Amino acid sequence: MNHLPALNHLRRADPVMARLIRRVGPCRFAVRAEGSHFHHLVRAIVYQQLSGKAAATIHRRFLELMKSDLPEPRAVARMDVRRLRSVGLSKQKAAYIRDLAEHVHTGRLPLDGIHELPDERVIEALTAVKGIGVWSAQMFMMSRLGRPDVLPALDLGIRKGVQLAYGLRSLPEPKRVLKIGAPWSPFSTVASWYLWRSLDGPAPEERTKLPKRVK
């Protein structure tokens, strides 16, 4: 991805962000292109609130249960919740994955054309599924769809990053994060990556993608 336009804009628009970019270094944010939209969302549900190693083990077992690296929504929707739980999923997560599969299989969640929807509609469509909240929808927009102007103001890492970068005495509320981040538009996604990256070096799940956190 060519991040130069985003970096040029952020440097001009906000001197604090300019210093952050200089300190963190080159932007390595990248979209997760492998797999399908459905698989990406299933994986996100599996990884919620778990360590990377534990989540990876459960995810691998799930794929083994489905006998496919890219299981079809129809097959997952037909899977008994008890069998889904046998791979290590909680009852809640098994139900979430089933609900997602049913939404996609029946067409209530049209993933094939979701890239054509504006940001607000993407969030509306995804949050209609149990287990997918606004945060998860924003992560999907950033890491899967590559939307350039997403600022997940509810995210604790973003709020901590803003607090540190701007020298705030207390953790900013989401509304203040949005106000501070207004100049970053239309490249808030890259700005968000830098805020995550500034906390401890790594940014997200794969340290060059996005952070791991429950919706």
Question: Can you walk me through this structure?
Answer:
With 215 residues, this protein is mostly helical. It folds into 2 domains: 4-31 and 148-200, Endonuclease Iii, domain 2 (Orthogonal Bundle); 37-143, Hypothetical protein, domain 2 (Endonuclease III, domain 1, Orthogonal Bundle), CATH 1.10.340. Helices cover 57% and strands 0% of the residues. It contains 12 helices and no strands. The chain has helices spanning 4-13, 15-24, 37-47, 52-66, 73-78, 81-85, 91-106, 119-126, 134-143, 156-165, 174-181, 188-200. Helix 1 packs across helix 2 (15-24), helix 2 (15-24) crosses helix 12 and helix 3 packs antiparallel against helix 7 (91-106). The relative contact order is 0.15.
Structural class: mainly alpha
**Care to count the β-strands?**
0
Helix content: 55-70%
Strand content: under 5%
- In the CATH hierarchy, the architecture of the largest domain is Orthogonal Bundle
Full CATH superfamily name of the largest domain: Hypothetical protein, domain 2
Give the overall form: elongated
CA-atom Rg in angstroms? 18 Å
User: What is the helix/strand order?
Assistant: HHHHHHHHHHHH
Counted by DSSP, the helix tally is 12
According to CATH, what is the class of the largest domain? Mainly Alpha
Largest sheet at a glance? none
Number of domains: 2
Q: On the 0-100 scale, what is the average pLDDT?
A: 90
Provide a quick synopsis of the model:
The protein has 215 residues and is an all-alpha fold. The chain contains twelve helices and no strands.
Write the layout of secondary structure elements.
Elements: H1 4-13, H2 15-24, H3 37-47, H4 52-66, H5 73-78, H6 81-85, H7 91-106, H8 119-126, H9 134-143, H10 156-165, H11 174-181, H12 188-200
